[in-house]
């Protein structure tokens, strides 16, 4: 269950943090952080501010390490930052940071246009992907008139539609209602691509291959979900008793 042991037994990782250092201004988030991620389904857990979003942003090249190296799909995020978005899908915790177009159709079509599809082709693809999720009626809707959960769903569809080689999800289900969450959980489990997902929804992570528990920018525990989630729950209950 130690980070060192995990690194020894797992070749060909999707993501490698090698002595990465990262700070938000004065606040150091990671200091010489090393971790290799290669399983098909990896969950990231940890209390608020433990570094989950920062880890995902570093892996996507949205943030760069001040020291050390982050490698995603074999690409150094510092030197190959521009190549990463075409291969790695990223879902922001806050949909408003992701959404840039007025209508749902245009938002989903954007990625296809970026890949070189004509506007007409891209809009057709957007409609096809909305229909896969039973939401064709959203095509012409104004994104900012949608609820938070609906916006989150649009962002998730936009990410999945481009069929990236690796998918990074930052709390994808935070605002989704239970039936939508369950439907998406099934859709995600069925995907071939590897997924790294930060979540406070521990039940969702139970069938994953590996869970990494972050605490203050360090790996507190790392291993099979049943071990890591149980230890995390036990710690949360201890913390709760101390608060009351
Ligand atoms: N934009 C920012 N400016 C300054 N500090 C930040 C910023 N974003 C995050 N931090 C700090 O970086 C640290 C790690 O934050 P991060 O968002 O990675 O944590 P997290 O585990 O994703 O938290 P949460 O569960 O609340 O989403 C925290 O101490 C946080 O206060």
TrEMBL record:
Looking at the record, the residues that make up the ABC transporter domain are 15-241
For this protein, the record's InterPro entries field holds:
AAA+_ATPase (IPR003593), ABC_transporter-like_ATP-bd (IPR003439), ABC_transpr_CbiO/EcfA_su (IPR015856), ECF_ABC_transporter_ATP-bd (IPR050095), P-loop_NTPase (IPR027417)
> One Pfam family name from the record?
ABC_tran
Alphabetically sorted, this entry's keywords are: ATP-binding, Nucleotide-binding, Transport
This protein's superkingdom?
A: Bacteria
Kindly give the PROSITE patterns that the UniProt entry links to this protein: ABC_TRANSPORTER_2
Coiled-coil residue spans? none
| Gene Ontology MF annotations | ATP binding; ATP hydrolysis activity; ATPase-coupled transmembrane transporter activity
What GO cellular-component annotations does this UniProt entry give?
Answer: ATP-binding cassette (ABC) transporter complex
Q: What family does this belong to?
A: Belongs to the ABC transporter superfamily.
Protein name, UniProt field: ABC transporter ATP-binding protein
Q: What is the lineage of its organism?
A: Bacteria, Pseudomonadati, Pseudomonadota, Alphaproteobacteria, Hyphomicrobiales
